[in-house]
Predict the 3D structure of the following.
Amino acid sequence: MSLAYYMVAETDIEGLDLFVDGKALAHADQQRLSALCEALKVRDLMDFVSIGTDELEDLFDDGAAPDELPDEQWFTAAEGLACVRALRERLRSGPGDLHDTEAVAEDLEAMESALVKLEQQGVRWHLAIDY
C-alpha cells in the first residue's frame, strides 16, 4: 500500500466527497512543506494530522497500547483553508519549491474544494494517514 493523506469529517455530510488522492502530498518533503508554512506564516499542514483512539489502538500489538492515548483532534475548515490556500498559491508561483510540485498543488486544490464545503456546513475535519 502506498502512503497517502486523506481527509476525515467530524460528521458525515450526505453527498460530500472528501476524496483527495493525497499521495503526492504524503511523499513531499515534509521539512520543506513545514518551512514553507512557517515562511507563509500559516499553521503547519502536518498540525492537522490526527488519529482516532480506535485506530491508534490498532497500531499496537495485543493490548500493548499505553493506558492514556491522545484524543482525536478536530479543526475548523477555516483553519485548514488558510494553510492550504497559502501553500497552493506559493507552489503555483514558485514551482521549484518541491519535487512534483504540480501533483502536490493538485492535492491541495482538492483539499481546498472539500474544505470550502465543510466550512459551508460548519463541520470540523482533520487529516489522517493511510499506510
In short: The mean pLDDT is 88. The CA atoms of residues 57 and 65 lie 6 Å apart.
